[in-house]
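thread: overnight batch results

M.L. [08:02]
morning all. the overnight job finished for the chain we discussed friday. pasting input first so we're all looking at the same thing
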Amino acid sequence: MTDISAPRPSTLSFAVHRPDMVVGAVLLGAMILIALLCPYLSQVDPRAMSPGQRLMAPSAEHWFGTDQLGRDLFARVLHGARVSLLVGASVAFLASLLGTIVGMVSASNRRLDAIIMRVMDGVMSIPAILLAIALMAVTGGSVGNVITAVTLVEIPRVARLIRGAVLSLREQPYVEAAIAAGTTAPRILVRHLLPGIVPPLLVQATFVWATAMLLEAALSFIGAGTPPTTPSWGNIMADGKALWQVRPSLIFIPAGFLSLTLLAINLLGDGLRDLLDPRQKPV
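M.L. [08:03]
and the structure it wrote out:
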């Protein structure tokens, strides 16, 4: 049997042995800085059109060139980072919060458990992108509606994870001892259950973040996500898909930024999973 009481490796020691986690954290931090500082990194309005400068090659004035409407691609990619990261982080937070509530309610009440889990199973049986498209068709295109739609898609996955974690923790001897001692339910929740579900929740939140960014890009690419006037990586790729043979950078540059960000988040999530796993042996 694995000794879960064994000391965990220090964060510094773990980082030395898992450089991929460090790379992920650095890449994600760089993308977040780009999103925060984009008004200072480029003074150009990402929505400003200049028909006389259509499809210009990269230059000192336009680092990534311009698109078919003469808009500066560098400025659009930088501002697109802000929208894409905002959607991903917002969905990760809201889905984690609401999924935790649903999962804990389900695990604490057997009658509600059967109903809630069947609803969650029904939602999960629908492909995520199709469900998101259907929700966007009802609500209309906007950043807020994209966040709402993708959050509803991701809640069941978090809820099932939390439900399973709570049911597992509830069988632990220290929880049974607390119940036998007459400890109140809120105290058991705060002192014994929440510390046990936070590590898997943090890891799941990173994967929800990555999935949400990918779904937002897919929705925007097919015209069902953020409005065309709002620069996001999905919208930028959608604008350039008709000219990808003439100017492939219109698609490959935003796609590269999106791919690097998704890679960073997944590397960070994998590292957190190993770091927070109580069965992880010291290194």
